[in-house]
Amino acid sequence: MSEDRADVGGFEHAQGFVAGETSGSLGLGPLEIQYEELFGEALADGVITAEERLRLEKAADNLGLDRQRLLRLEQAMVAAYQSRHRVQIVEHYEEEAPSLAPLRVEAEGDAGRALLLKRVEQLQARVKELEEELRRAQAAVNVEVDLTDLESSVDYAGEDPDEVWRRLRRNPTSVEGYRQLFRIQTAKGDADAAFRASEALVALGAANADEKATFERGRAQTLIAPRGSLSQAAWHDFLFHPEQELLTGQIFSLIAPAVLVGRVTSLRRDGKLHQPSPEAKQDIAKATVTAVRAVPWAAAILGLACPALYVDKTRDAGFEHIPGVPPCTVIGKRVLSGKSQLEQAFLVGRHLTWYRQEMYLKTLFSSVPDLEDLFLAALTIGNPGLPIAEDMKRRVTPIAHAIQPMLEAQQVDALRGCFLRFVEEGGRTNLQRWSAATDKTAARAGLVLCGDLGTALSELSAEEGPQGELGKDLLWFSASDRYGKLRRQLGVAKAAS
């Protein structure tokens, strides 16, 4: 089957569409993008020769790069390499290159000893400050109570959709719940909410004649035509699943670029780094393949940056994340043909969500134990005295040492602040729950873009079977006021007839 092409229409923004501020995307600076490749090549065999070092120095001069930034970048990549392969990097040159030369303190003489003693005093004072911060934070633990799922003991108000939504959240496949919601919203004259309730009933195979008629009048036949992008606030307030703890995501976002660089280094050394052919790179301004056109269309609506795109007709994949500096998307044969535009819209919405900086690490390390190690490593950077078990410390310390050199001073300060907030909020997180919540958030983003619950559920069913956890969450979300507010913000909600 040939590639689907958009010779006429498809994945175009409506006239008057206003792209909002791009926010939330994984960000990497030009230093990481340009210099990482050069240093990664030199690092590949575990030996940096004099010729390779000379080439790196020349590149640094030509690019006008800050030497302290280069030092941190190289330290992070070397630490990641040594941690992964348990070997020592060797450099073969007579004099230490400026890009790697740390500030020296002479060991000989009184002046040298004075400097060393002064530095020890500073470090001791800083340790005391951190210990005091920890004590204050531990003494200020807040107790939070979540009443969102509490059943009301008062008489049920049948005209209150909020109560129905709460009950549906606990039982998202309740036919009676969606039917009641349909009656309430129809009586209120909320055409979009009534349509969404009818859509859920059709998806459950339980719609009556009136509900089917409402659904048929409003069902999506074409792509949504929003008037603008989703804001950062809309993501946080309406699109994120409630169990996707924002603080956990913030901590991951601070270390994500550094972890990416380390991961790319390890994959390159193992010969597992996929590097798409330059000839496969797509010019999005001239693209005719519908799957390619879908990506910048979706990115603009979601308020995210569009990644570099490559097409590989032989790759058994859909929209695939490829680690790199910067990362990119490879579009494989699963979405190059045989998918409707609504299906592609759902899939690309899910895909792009993982480019958000607070979620990107899951594309590199999907297992919960790996995420736990990265989370603890980040907390260790925020508080080097973090009391953790010895076996855990042996796993986490090398990761922290690989990450920290890549961080700016303000990022380390931010991690310190995150640690204090983490302690204040109880010092606990459930990364299994957080990980599952991010999967639900990505599916919700897909639904926002395709605007058709049946399409979204069909794609999820192919992955997890009918009545899977993602599908049940999407059923509830589709009928919720959160989704309604997102649709109104985009300007795609159904108007009263």
Question: How would you characterize the overall build of this protein?
Answer:
The chain is mainly alpha-helical. Among the domains are: 30-92, no CATH class; 161-218, no CATH class. 58% of the residues lie in helices and 4% in strands. It is built from 21 helices and five strands. The protein has helices at 30-43, 50-63, 67-85, 109-138, 161-170, 175-188, 191-203, 209-218, 232-239, 246-269, 290-302, 333-336, 341-353, 361-364, 368-382, 390-403, 409-424, 431-450, 453-464, 469-479, 481-490, and strands at residues 47-49, 90-92, 308-311, 319-322, 328-331. The strands form two sheets. It has a three-stranded mixed beta sheet. A two-stranded parallel sheet has the order 1-2. Helix 3 (67-85) packs across helix 10 (246-269) and helix 7 (191-203) packs antiparallel against helix 20. It is globular. It starts with 29 loop residues before the first helix and ends in a 7-residue tail after the last helix.
